[in-house]
Design brief:
globular; EAL domain-containing protein; alpha/beta; 8-stranded mixed barrel; binds magnesium ion; disordered N terminus; binds ligand C2E; 297 residues
């Protein structure tokens, strides 16, 4: 790789690819390979309940985040490969693969008798177009003796933009079975907000771009987040702030009545065994000696 770089003065991230489309086809090929042979891992980023009246932040669950060491390409982040998987329809297989990995973890934790957290999985819009998505997922949980309340699902506004009946039907079936649904990256989509009343959603995750603006000079960030919190409360939705990185953001969110937070300030994504250990110890946050950012991220 170093030799190649030396030869190619115009090298970018992957010097072996002459253009974007050859990089894309390499990613697609590598995805197919890893879907068959393995190569994906999950990290779990804890979610903390911060409602006032409590002594401190309490770990209540996590979000599963996909990690991929792509054959021939190296460690590749989801922001790179998810859009490519979406453009080819491979994302449905990927969603199914991730869900299986997570249900495997949950099944182990449920069978060993200890307390079990609720873990969220990110599911793409395309999976929700499949009329049998909810049915298959509930079947998978039943086969593994995992209660539906152990799983929650994050979807983006894009999933609801299509206003398709299959997406709504899947959401209703999942909710009826006890699976909570969260709207991810709230505020970044372009959809009408009517779905918030129309569908049985439980949670609204405020996109980290808004959280990053808390504590700015002009107070613009605070204005938007306050408005989102008020709307969510009026609609009976729980609120989660994502990407909380500072003490100032954390304290402000708590004083404004945000229900839950996620972000490097309290914990980076963790190895699953590390997450379950901390969860069961009932500790407020990971060891302060542990690195605060994800290694290699
Ligand atoms: P997301 O669902 O909004 O996930 C949160 C992202 O923010 C994660 O990035 C996480 O590592 C990162 N993050 C967490 N705390 C902080 C923080 O304090 N500061 C900053 N700057 N970032 C933080 P990641 O893991 O790279 O994932 C990116 C996106 O890729 C996710 O955004 C999600 O939309 C998607 N994704 C990840 N895993 C999956 C998956 O299994 N399936 C699908 N369909 N999408 C996935
Ligand atoms: Mg998410
Ligand atoms: Mg998010
Ligand atoms: Mg986000």
């Amino acid at each position: 790789r170093a030799k190649e770089l030396g030869r190619n003065r115009f090298a970018t991230f992957h010097p072996e690819f002459q253009d974007k489309s050859s990089h894309q086809s390499a990613v697609i090929q590598a995805l197919r390979h890893s879907l068959r042979n393995g190569g994906f891992r999950l990290k779990l980023q804890p979610k903390f309940d911060i409602r006032s009246g409590q002594s401190g932040p309490r770990m209540i669950g996590a979000e599963a985040l996909l990690r991929w060491n792509a054959p021939g390409l190296g460690e590749t982040p989801p922001d790179v490969f998810i859009p490519i998987a979406e453009s080819t329809g491979l994302v449905r297989e990927l969603d199914a693969h991730v869900t299986k990995m997570l249900v495997g973890l949950l099944a182990g934790w449920n069978s060993d008798g200890g307390p079990c957290p609720t873990v969220a999985v990110n599911i793409s819009a395309q999976s929700f177009q499949d009329t049998r998505f909810a049915e298959r997922l509930l079947e998978l949980l039943a086969q593994n003796a995992v209660p539906p309340t152990a799983l929650s699902i994050e979807i983006t506004e894009t999933t609801l933009m299509k206003r398709s009946s299959s997406a709504s039907d899947n959401i209703r079936s999942l909710r009826a079975a006890g699976i909570t649904i969260a709207i991810d990256d709230f505020g970044t989509g372009y959809s009408s907000l009517s779905y918030l009343q129309r569908l049985p959603l439980a949670e609204l995750k405020i996109d980290r771009s808004f959280i990053a603006r808390i504590g700015g000079r002009d107070r613009d960030g605070e204005v938007i987040v306050t408005a989102i919190l008020l709307m969510a409360q009026a609609l009976g939705l729980r609120t989660v702030a994502e990407g909380v990185e500072t003490d100032a953001q954390f304290e402000w969110l708590r004083s404004e009545g945000c229900d839950m937070v996620q972000g490097y300030f309290l914990s980076p994504p963790l190895e699953p065994q590390e997450f379950i250990r901390l969860y069961r110890e009932g500790r407020a946050r990971p060891d302060p000696a542990a690195p605060t950012a994800e290694p290699g991220a």
